[in-house]
Fold these 3 entries.
Entry 1:
Amino acid sequence: MTKKTDFELLRYSRCKRGAIKFSYWFLSIPHKLKNLLFKIGNFFKRIFLFFVNDIKDIGRTFKKGSYKTKLSYVFMGFGSFARKQIGRGILFMGFEALYIVFMTMFGSHYLARLGSLGTVAHEYVRVLVNGVWVQQIVYHDNSFKILLYSIITIIVSIAFIYTWRLNIKQNKICEEIEASGKKVKSTKDDLRSLVDNDFHKTLLALPTVGILLFTVLPIVFMILIAFTNYDMNNTPPYNLFHWIGLDNFNQLFGWSSGSKYFSAAFGEILAWTLVWAVLATFTNYFLGMAVAMLINKKGIKIKKMWRTILIITIAVPQFVSLLFVSKMFTANGIINTIFHTNIDFWNNRWIARSLVIVINIWIGIPYLMLITTGILMNIPSDLYESAKIDGASPWKQYAKITLPYMLFVTGPYLLTSFIANMNNFNVIYLLTGGGPKVTNSFNSGGTDLLITWLFKLTVDNHNYKFAAVIGIMVFLVVAVISLIVYNLLPSTRNEEEFQ
Amino acid sequence: MRKVEKKVDQYDVYRPHKASIKKRRLAGNIAAYTGLILISAVWLIPLVFLIFASFGVNADGTGGAGVPSTIFPEHWGVASYVVLFTDSQVPFMRWFLNTFIMALATAILSSAMTIMMSYVLSRFRFKGRRFMMNFMLVLGMFPGFLTTIVLYYVLKMLGLTQNGAIGGLILVYCASSGMGYYISKGYFDTIPKSLDEAAYVDGATKFQVFYKIMLPLAKPILIYTVLTAFMAPWGDFVFARYISFGYSDSYNVAVGLWSLLQQDKIANYFTVFCAGGVLVSLPVTILFICLQRYYVSGVTGGAVKG
């Protein structure tokens, strides 16, 4: 089958065109997969080559180098001292000394026990207190500490290796400079470059360290927790937890004979999370756009006031408005009184779910109104004028001009807001607390999203292993959706269309 | 007047419905206004109800009634506001102060981190830049709460939970704020590069360019960043609850007022919650509306950049 061009396709009906295009896409999957595998292979090959070259370079530098360089391989910063770069020398040598002290006093002890995560958690000892024998508890291995400090030790070691390599590179550069007869940089020069040529390093230092310590380290830790049995019954310091391989994941997918409720609850909640994210994103998007268009309409006066009214709801902290609204809908709350009804909104799963979506519209529309207002005004008005001359109805104008333009410009935003909605903790937790309760569901409720379930599993049940597994699953779902959508987005496919 | 219109009607054969177009536009406007008034009502009513509820008191005039079932409270009074400042169970001033301190610290530290990160990613080209951006993108896909379990443990060792939760929370809010660089980076990208180049030609260092040229030019996005950073602690619930767990003197307003709605308290403290909610919302809302312009430009720019 030869591939038809877009132009040739025009003679088919719209339906047939779609079918043919789909079949092209379907047939291209093997090719795409092959490309992907190839890319991944290339990636690893590049990393491997990088390391090989690096090691070769280290060897070459050692061979060619003077005694200053050679000694630097063992005593970091020796070369710097010898070349009167005091500042660098102190940093290098200080770091090496610190690293050695850190490893001998601290790091190696924990690293050695990483494989077992400890053997004895506690024991009771009889101690003589004021002449009386008392039984006292003595804690030994703490799996949590062992795992955490081991990760820190590994990170510090990687940093050390990197610095060692840096030290060698510096020596090489200095030798080249000396060979060409120029002067090497002094400490003063180094300090000056920190506000000039290397200013980005100064600026990046603090944010990077913050992200490493407060995001990367915890995430690595929690990923590892997913492969242990860390839960309420295995909580340090009284008890130990151990590596259990893929057991948690087996339970999640129902492959192992453990609790069948866990995988059932997970499937249910994942489905609702996706449905919720789709509905919440698109209801907000279209209704927000509608409100923005209403305010933008020709002939509407005091536009600013209408906008401000909506914006007030952004300013009021969500916990105030959400908690209050949730109480308005209780069995004998204001809403039931006004309408003389007697609906128990939060106790029926489906009513609760619909209501959560409706209230989320209330929360979300002001943002969308703000975002879309500006973009709507940017649409070239000649497009509308020519459409009018051609006799297009307002609906046609919306479908053929406004909507494509909006989707094109806000495509990336839609993706991020979809992901934000998947992790929309506040709306669900403050409105329903995840309820109504469902039996045999691992503490999950009728409106729980994965993220609120994760919160409940940690805070109420101390079931860290499953929380970690769910966290990883959330990541996987988000990553897969982002990849797919990003490739489908019109803004990445044909960038020139509206420019 | 009428004569002229008639004349136009006679000759303008292709636009025979001029009068009816006017009429239709009027009808459209009326419909639009009704829609807007309805929308405004729906958006304001819960807030108005909140204010009404905060003035509800018990039959004997003491503050702290349960969940109201009517729009207007049966008994009016300001006793619920008084409870906020007198009841030892409700250290509202403490909560407010806690949140205010956290908000100030976060506004300064976290915006500094964000601006530093976004400026570097926008203006400098260095090895590993793309990797850093992709890495942060991937990191952002993990649910943020996941990190709290470890952070809690670490902060506990440092004495920054429960009793010292304020310090711990400030750290949590600020440390990773470099990851929220997208919007301000987008803004820096729009400032023409020729400005920096001109300054470099004149012999300015990179620090001087950043401090003397870029920061003043980036004032709108600076204000946006500071404003959002300042507002975050007022609404944060997840981290605040986990880190200050069970120690009511270091709650922020969100956790504190939320604790009033738990089963053992709601019957006696609901109107107190409403009163607290009103008192928290007022300053934040006023600040927000004053700086609305900057917020709108930040949000809009961010969405378009993606």
Entry 2:
Amino acid sequence: MKLVWLHGWSLSNTDPAMVAHPDAPAIFVFDKPFLEQTRMAFPRLQFMFEAALEALAERHHSRICLGIQAEEIIAFAKLHHCTTICYSLIPSPELRRTLDALEQAGLKLEVYPVEYLTSYTGQVKRFSAFWREVEHEVLRG
Amino acid sequence: MEFKQQFSSREEITTYLGQMFKGLYTGEPRAPALHGGRSASLAQLEAFKAKNYGRRNHTNAPVSRLSAYLRHGQLSMLEVAEYIRSHSQGRERDEFLKQLTWRDFFYLVLEQKGLKVLENLEEPKYPMRWVQPMPDDILEARTNLPCVDAWVSKLVDTGYLHNHERLWFAAYTVHFRQIHWQAGFAFFREHLLDGDIASNALSWQWVASTFSHKPYFMNKDNISKFSSNQWCAGCRAKCPFDKTYQTLERELFGADYGWSS
């Protein structure tokens, strides 16, 4: 069984992991330790909550919660007998701690790449140089 | 702690979340200026016309307001690009796509640098004396500079600032007030609906000169021109920006680097 984990970069039912598993349980967690350490104005929280509500509205089994991100995902996975966590890969290093905890708990990770606008994979430093490399691809589509 | 998922109104959501998140947010519970969700994001996309996008640097020009939806994955980069390609044309189409590509660029930098984006990526290009934290007069919009106070109020009230206003505010805090860009990054992250680690931190570093060849700064003429004189008309403040670029360069950075020539 698979579980879809929505994170702050993937709050939509069009998220690649959601699309790949339309019948899987899905969860979004507001990470309490992060919110305790980071100043966050209330409207930002409601904006994310509204997006999560709509993203999960059609799911038979879904949960939005506040807690330690990894612990909440592990608990929801156990509840639905899920052994694989599906999520969209974004480059944020802030997710690393959660991913490590999920793996340590014995859960498998199934990663869905997020689409970039360009296929460029070289080192980047200045936008002007990057733009010269990708201009044709971006404008042509 | 699990949240309920059925609500009868947006006001009910605000009240409910105010209790559930108690102690974990700043300010008062109030609904965001933009409605979160895929439906709202599509409505925003369909309402946007790239026509006149060439005037995007003017604060009263039409801009897409898609950044919060892109930030939280309610729209994908590819679908926005495809929409613009098929619904607009010419230079304005190309300019929008170029601006959209900044987001790709920032994410690639984040992928390659990781949490290092939260520290100076390069040495500052001038002898900086940055301090923290952000002073109260800025946070509370009482600098007595109408433009600066308006940017802060708009940021706090709406969770949004026009890109040019973001640059001006960043230049004011980092160069004119010598506040570390990390304090500005945290302030923006607190309030911007599109606040993220990549675009936000790297844009502040771009202004500060730790992710660019030179610091970004502006003078009064620039603010007046691109704001349609919105704040300068009738302003009686002692304006720190009312100087030539050459003068500002010497005063702010301690030498004539030739950045303004």
Entry 3:
Amino acid sequence: MSHNERDWSVHPPYIYPEYKSTILRGPKKPLIAIEHSLSELTIPAFGHGQMQEFDNDLTINGRATNGQMVGEPLGERIQVSGRILDEYGRPQVGILVEIWQANAAGRYIHKSDQHHAPIDPNFFGGGRCVSDENGRYSFMSIKPGAYPWGNHHNAWRPNHIHFSLFGMSFASRLVTQMYFPGDPLLALDPIYNATNDQAARTSLIAKFSEEYCIPDLALGYEFDIILRGPMATPMEV
Amino acid sequence: MGNNKLKQTPSQTVGPYFSYGLTPEQGGYDFKSITSPILVKKDTLGEHIILQGHIYDGNGDIIPDAMIEIYQADHQGKYISKEIPPSDDVFTGFGRCDCETNSNFCFKTIKPGSIGDGHAPHINMVIFMRGLLSHAYSRVYFSDEMDANHNDNVLNNVPSDRRATLIAKRTENENGDIIYQFDLNMQGINETVFFDV
């Protein structure tokens, strides 16, 4: 079984000087080719059974509970859903999807985040789910705010949600970020712009979706994710 | 389909704030972790080892805000595939470590067996960090397996003057624990070998 290659026309380079942290951290020597074996073509058993109720609902899983008082997180409620496919459009079933994000004010719960925006005591910002038999995943959350970072003068990250995925093999591992349509910060963001291919870059922007809106509750966004998979055999294509 | 293949979704950096989502228990957050840097229980079969190291940037400074994942076969050289539902008793061979806790990574695992002819025992590794836009793949081989290493197809494809960057050094600590030290250099003359997996 051969695997499609990691497509370096879409994945960002290791050194992208506009994103300053890459300069001392990205490998500089050429990558060494590797012949795929079970080491690359199998996938860890990571604990599907460990999912807990509300793991995919970030509007619930981080609520503070002070005695009987349970609060609601602040911000615009969203549903983010999409399909995980391989390059031939085949649904990727049973994929572990983990997400993490800032709250509506642009503040991460992470202890190192020093941004002056307020913590929301009812929002944690982490979640996970497993894709269903159609490759579909779904999260309920709050639209994350933009936040400043130190890369350059007036650097603000566009609104985004971090995604981590295990595909059908160790070789299809992917960590990426989902952005929101119409965000003026995208054009200025060196992380987003590090993908040179425009079509690939814009594929990181979710589409507003009426279908995924929930009446009187949440706006809907659709974000499909394409993972590397085994090459299609002639019978399949 | 042929030319109509869909394009892979681009990678993006894990950023500095992954811990509460990906390694919450290790980072001290109130959210259950689905994996950890401790892959073994007391009765896990095989030689118990500690795999540890630092990650250095191009200036030789330690990188604290990185995340390492490892994936390996069991002591008999078998991968526990996804189909086998993991339970507390099963060695899954998968672990994840947030380096921020002690500015290093430290896994408790077992030394894997060889997965077949032409394969020296090894642990697969993925490196994520702020400033790394696409994750990097490497491999950990063992300093006490030099014969097997000489016959490893992947190592033999690495320029000979760079192979040493992939060999973890075996030592023992005062408690009798077997330690394999594996430091990563992201850049420089001793830049670790990263693979185009």
